[in-house]
Amino acid sequence: MQIAIPLYAGYDAADALGPYFVLRNVPGATVTFVAERPGVVADHGVTLTATASFADLPAPDVLVVPGTTDVARSTTDRELIRYVRTAHATTTWTTSVCVGSLALGAAGLLEGVRATTHWVARDLLAGFGAHPVDERFVTDGKIITAGGVLAGIDMALHLASLLADEETAMAIQLGLEYAPRPPFDAGTPATAPAEITALVRSLLRNT
Question: Which of 6, 23, 70, 96 is most buried by a 10 A CB count?
Answer without folding.
Answer: 96
